[in-house]
């Protein structure tokens, strides 16, 4: 967050190697990913496209326009992972603009839905590693998570969306995590 830093607030493909598209303004990731997945289908390319979205981010309407297109085009090589931590910038998602029943919403848009514990790496590998060929639908993985997991004073606490730990908090967090 310093002037001229490579690490400005939102990742920028012009400064950072490995970043394929600028995001950060919420609601851009899924529409871009759907475009990439459509391109793969049109060119007969078998790559898979993965996109990670926040749950609060899903309040942006652009996501649902993209989801509708993904379902319509049966983009089985597209996977959306929703970080379902139930917190957004200033409050809980359900207190702001409720998303539940979130799984039914994705199904209604033509997705196959898997709901998992997002902290369970084996479960993540299972659902992400499964061969999508023949599924005929894009996949939505709703990963239930706890924001700040593993750091007692950060867990499920909305103030850490933008929080910066002081030296003592940093030391305690590292002690709890390692
Ligand atoms: C279009 C747009 N509006 C507002 C913001 C400001 N903003 C940044 S993160 C955030 C909350 C996002 O919530 P969520 O997707 O649940 O992410 P998490 O809280 O899990 O980090 C908001 C409103 C933004 N980056 N882009």
TrEMBL record:
Domain Transketolase N-terminal, chain residue ranges per copy: 5-175
InterPro entries from the entry?
THDP-binding, Transketolase_N
What domain of life?
A: Bacteria
User: Pfam families from the xrefs?
Assistant: Transketolase_N (PF00456)
* Cofactor(s) recorded in Swiss-Prot or TrEMBL: thiamine diphosphate
Which Gene3D superfamilies does the UniProt entry name for this protein?
3.40.50.970
Q: Which UniProt keywords apply?
A: Thiamine pyrophosphate
Family, according to the entry, reads as follows: Belongs to the transketolase family.
- Name-wise, this protein is Transketolase N-terminal domain-containing protein
What organism is this sequence from? Pleomorphomonas carboxyditropha
Where is the organism placed in the taxonomic lineage, from the top? Answer: Bacteria, Pseudomonadati, Pseudomonadota, Alphaproteobacteria, Hyphomicrobiales
